[in-house]
Amino acid sequence: MEVLGLDIGFGFTKAANTREHLMFKSLIGEAEEIQFQSDFALNALSECLHVTIDDTDYFVGDYAEKQSNVRHFTLDQDKLVTDFLRILSLTVIGLLSEKYVPLQVVSGLPVVYYREYKEKFSKTLLGHHEITYHKPDGFDIQRRINISKIRMIPQPFGSLLNHLLSDAGKITNRDLAQQKIGVVDIGFNTTDYVLFDNMQYINRGSKTINTGISDCFRQISEKIRQKSGFGIELYRLYKPVDNGIIKMKGQEYNLAKTKEQIFTQTAEVIAHEVNQSWADDWDMDAILLTGGGSMELARYMKPLLNGQIIMPASDYDARLNNVQGFLKFAKYLWPEQPSG
């Protein structure tokens, strides 16, 4: 038996087991015949994801972005679960599962989609699966996967569990467990804000809004189009936005001012929704900011939110908070049995 945390987001697919974690863009492309492989290219299996699932070939993640003529990307939850979930999940799980052993998985969904999709999510992945990885050197790796159990939770609960539990899945932060905590999870397409009181989920204070980093990227993409005439796919904006500069056809465009303005506006929208929803929760102990979007928006939101703020750690990728919490919760639910 092996435990695993799995987080399928609109922006990135993440998974973690007791040995390592993996992350790649939630992007699927049609497989193409590659005429030549450079000796100097990064040809690690996780960098060149060419897989066969259910007799169909796909490029996945960055490899799809670089090599596929036809690429598929979605910001629709139903399509994510129906068309993307199986391919993205099996691709990342197979990379982490070298042995054919029963896997017990914890994963999550945004609050607003949790009730509607949790059963469909589980049924899609439970059971036995086969996946083939086609390496750039021409060799294939076949993996058989057996997902025996899946536990679904609201995605932001993963971040709270990541702060509450040790790597072994034991409760170590008992003060946090007894407090009233708000979690604001800023994702690519949505933002969840969830309220917990003594670790009890408070339904009335937990919502999802359709505002995330993709809204910022969409506005930045439009600004770039107005200046350059080129439309940029949202999933290609991570590095340019992070660097504050994009180069197109030899011309450099500075994004710093545009980024500052748009991030400020988006932070104001999210903070207003959160403050309004939690207006009566004056007894809240702290607000935890998490999710990939928090790495960009946290500094804009901190002065706008009412309460004590727990900021994302500067030396840690906040995109992994939920999946690491899922993994710790899996260890809590299914502790390793002593051998013999």
Structure summary:
With 340 residues, the protein is an alpha+beta fold. Helix content is 35%, strand content 30%. It is built from ten helices and 17 strands.
The CATH class of one domain, by name, is Alpha Beta
Relative helix content: 25-40%
Describe the strand arrangement of the main beta sheet, using strand numbers: 3-2-1-8-10-9-5-6-4-7
> Roughly what is the average pLDDT, rounded to an integer?
93
- The separation of the N and C termini measures 15 Å
CATH superfamily of one domain: ATPase, nucleotide binding domain
Share of residues in strands: 25-35%
Would you give an account of this structure?
With 340 residues, this protein is of the alpha+beta class. The protein has a domain at 2-157 and 327-333: Nucleotidyltransferase, domain 5 (2-Layer Sandwich). It is 35% helix and 30% strand. The chain has helices at 62-67, 77-96, 111-125, 155-164, 174-177, 213-228, 238-243, 256-277, 294-301, 321-333; strands spanning 2-8, 12-16, 21-25, 28-30, 50-53, 56-60, 71-72, 102-109, 127-134, 140-154, 180-186, 191-197, 200-209, 245-248, 251-254, 286-290, 309-310. Strands 3-2-1-8-10-9-5-6-4-7 form a ten-stranded mixed β-sheet, sandwiched between helices. Strands 13-12-11-16-17 form a five-stranded mixed β-sheet, with helices on both faces. A hairpin with a 4-residue loop joins strand 11 (180-186) and strand 12. Helix 2 (77-96) crosses helix 3 (111-125).
